[in-house]
Amino acid sequence: MRCLTDAAAFILVGLQLTRAAPASIRGPSSLLGFSESNGVNNENTDDFNHPLADGQGTTNANVGQFLDFSDIADPQPIRGTKGGTQPGSDNDILNKLYPDKVAPPGTDHGGTINAQWSLSKYPHHKLGLNRAGFSRQENTVVMPDATAFAGVQMRLEEGAYRELHWHVASEWALMLNGSARIQAINENGEAFLDDVSKGDVWFFPPGVPHSIQGLGGGTEFLLVFDDGEFSEDNTFLVSEIFAHNPKSVLSQNLGVPISAFDGIPPGELFIFPGTAAPSDIEKQNVTNSNGVIPKSATYSYHFSKQEPLDVAGGSVKIIDPQSFPIADMVSAALVTVAPGAMREIHWHPTSDEWTFFLYGQGRATLFTAEDSANTFDFSSGDVGYFPQSNSHYVQNTGDVDLVLLEVLKADHFSDIALGQWIATTPPQIVEDTLNLSSATVKALSKAKEKQYVIPSSGPVANPIKSS
Ligand SMILES: *[C@@H]1O[C@H](CO)[C@@H](O)[C@H](O)[C@H]1NC(C)=O
Ligand SMILES: *[C@@H]1O[C@H](CO)[C@@H](O)[C@H](O)[C@H]1NC(C)=O
Ligand SMILES: *[C@@H]1O[C@H](CO)[C@@H](O)[C@H](O)[C@H]1NC(C)=O
């Protein structure tokens, strides 16, 4: 009470002061335009410390190596002889994350689409009931040019459900952590039930109703929908189909009294805690006269059990309709890139690429016609997007493995690799076109096979020279 009185008195004093010294919120007309009395202050705007990252000021901007700003307090928009210091308002936390935006390689030019988004940025996480989990999503609201796919990352605690539902888009999923039980029914009335663990994949076609439950220890997974405008807020939920049909109709349709529906949920459950799934999956094996879904049309693929193909600098494994037929237009590659190595420069001739960064950090340059290129930096939990036939690479810029998932809307996984293309072109054409020495062209022509991942070439040492 006493505090309140003091505070009120203080405010009163403040008000009186304001009244006593009549001031305006706007300035006088004497400040307009030139007048000798309005002289300038020559402040030194370069009077601050701005250490540069290794290689930032000492190599030609076109060398464009990765700049590590992690120990730089105040990253500067400087690359080689280009740019200048930044004394003004700036977000140094973001600048450390996006060095290729602050100080782009000299080879960046013009405008491309925005090819990078972090799921931490927007929209807010959608939180499940009673700490059962959450989801977060990326779609055309935040990446307007990423029209082929939208992505959702979802967490379910042990026993928690993603409510029974269906949607207009198809759903392709990669398990990121833990294990889950998934179930569905197809249009032939055939039942599907399986347990999946970290690294496995599932696919539910449009309209197929399904549910997901976290098993022991819970689960986390990535969902990829074949429509960039998809939203988790816009799915058909079992709670809502029950809430929005007349109870007399439900009663007639399902053959139980109206009062049987007295306790149904009033609205969406989405993510909510449940009774732990029985560890014996056969206890939940419910079928009708149509039996279980045949293997040729089944909704899961135990991708975790597929050995990756080791290549210099990392490994690759592909899942596409040749091995997982039900996902007839989703082709994906899970790529591991060792520190310093890179997914080679390539493009996908028939599809846009939607990318998810599972672990580590990397950067990519998107080259697009005409004459435009932008370099983007990525961390785990980020989405990348590279339009059809637009070239890109992904270089590991960290000190642990980079793992990324490339998803295409295609009936098989395919790409064209710059290195293989050039190596398989008659040397005379390459020499004449690129003005390379015949020794260089001879060296290039050795890499005739697709590399997928190129090993680290060691530190860049390239003194600055005028270009
Ligand atoms: C799975 O989750 C556990 C618990 O948070 C974590 O320790 C582990 O690193 C995760 N595994 C992967 C591969 O992310
Ligand atoms: C369920 O039962 C059917 C036979 O009715 C069997 O083919 C199938 O393997 C069982 N298990 C699962 C998980 O579908
Ligand atoms: C070809 O490259 C050499 C240097 O390697 C340069 O001197 C020459 O001007 C270039 N030719 C053209 C046509 O650009």
TrEMBL record:
Active site feature: E406
Binding site for Mn(2+) 2: H346, H348, E353, H392
Boundaries of every Cupin type-1 domain copy: 127-262, 301-442
Record text on cofactor binding: Binds 2 manganese ions per subunit.
Residue ranges, annotated region (Disordered): 36-60, 74-114
Pfam families recorded: Cupin_1
Domain of life: Eukaryota
An annotated Gene Ontology molecular function: metal ion binding
UniProtKB keywords: Manganese, Metal-binding, Signal
Entry's Gene Ontology BP terms: oxalate metabolic process
UniProt feature coiled coil, ranges: none
Residues given in the record as Mn(2+) 1 binding sites: H165, H167, E171, H210
Cofactor: Mn(2+)
Signal peptide range: 1-20
NCBIfam families from the UniProt entry: bicupin_oxalic (TIGR03404)
Protein name per its UniProtKB record: Bicupin, oxalate decarboxylase/oxidase
Organism of provenance: Rhizodiscina lignyota
Classification of source organism: Eukaryota, Fungi, Dikarya, Ascomycota, Pezizomycotina
